[in-house]
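Form 7-S
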Amino acid sequence: MKPGSGLWFLVLVSLCFTVKSQCSKGCGLALASYYVWPESNFSFIGQVLGTDPDTIVSFNKDKVSDKDRVPSFIRVNVPFSCDCIRGEFLGHEFLYNISSGNTYELIAETYYANLTTIDALTQFNSYNPNNIPDNGQINVTVNCSCGDSAISKEYGLFITYPIREEDNLESIAANESIDPQLLQRYNEGVDFGKGSGIAYVPGKELKVQLSDFKESRKVTSLAQW
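Output:
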């Protein structure tokens, strides 16, 4: 081996590892923007997203005051832990209990309100999409974001926001009280007029909710979620 070749080999290995490793840690908490469909309720939403109705209400006081009376066709923010999954991407893996008649389409597009996709369910599970059993569990992966300090250091909590047909850049920005240009910078390459896909929406006011949430759940570790 020529002098110095060992060093170049180590550099090459380091570069390869850097390229493959997309994250090293999560950021503790993210929010899922869940579109409330008819016949759903906070008990069901909490069940599929690993939380409870009281917690959901605490993050949506401007929209909901009673956990037992949930209006349909609104969005609610649901907290979940944002983890680094296998060093590859930021997200959280939920376990969903299968019941008779379930399909990947029903689970992804209705029960998880497009927070995941049929392709993701197919990728992270061994079941044939056309032959899902009547019982058992499947892995439901929901992506999340920890932000980008190069864009702004003011935002520390991000919403995983499924884009719907009625959405566009301006309407989402207005609903979430954020500058449209900043929202686009956090979502480079995202077509907000497509009617589908995921955007990551930052929010400064959500920091207050997060602080209140942590204070009210001192005895509960986020690591238990």
